[in-house]
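pls design
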């Protein structure tokens, strides 16, 4: 019989796995924005900043209403890069914080499938009013595009277990105008 690790130990293990991934993936410049699906397009906006994210989508083994354990999304954790230089971090909320302290908190508004079944969806996120600061204060929409990886589904063995799944993508911060 094995003891279940406390949540702080499980989280630390996930963060260590993510650190290894980030060291192996120092970041790159965002790819050119492709034609966007209508559902996540944001007409009447202009880009303020585009960053490349490299990190993990964290999943937790939880029981469904029938008691069957399965992987459920818990939170993202990623480093943000501009031209290969660390520009900030992405974390639960969802939130993005730049190295200069600028912060944005948003909620999902629409999604479109990723390029493959292994890729997390592209998203349009609406910034929560009053939850943007610094050089991102005018931002009203965040798009997650060009995703690669990050999905996990199916059964799991140990309720409470965490599993980081590497992903990358681009986040485009948009303000009214343009």
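designed seq:
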């Amino acid at each position: 019989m094995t003891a279940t690790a406390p949540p702080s130990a499980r989280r630390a293990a996930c963060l260590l796995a993510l650190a290894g991934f980030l060291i192996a993936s120092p970041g790159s410049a965002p790819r050119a924005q492709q034609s966007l699906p209508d559902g996540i397009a944001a007409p009447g906006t202009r880009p303020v900043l585009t960053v490349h994210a490299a990190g993990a989508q964290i999943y937790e083994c939880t029981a469904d209403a029938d008691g069957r354990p399965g992987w459920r999304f818990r939170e993202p954790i990623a480093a943000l890069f501009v031209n290969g230089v660390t520009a900030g971090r992405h974390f639960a909320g969802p939130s993005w914080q730049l190295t200069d302290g600028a912060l944005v908190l948003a909620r999902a508004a629409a999604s479109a499938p990723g390029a493959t079944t292994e890729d997390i969806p592209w998203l349009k996120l609406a910034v929560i009013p009053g939850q943007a600061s610094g050089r991102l204060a005018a931002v009203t929409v965040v798009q997650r595009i060009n995703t690669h990886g990050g999905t996990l589904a199916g059964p799991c063995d140990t309720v409470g277990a965490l599993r980081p799944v590497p992903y990358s993508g681009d986040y485009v911060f948009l303000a009214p105008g343009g």
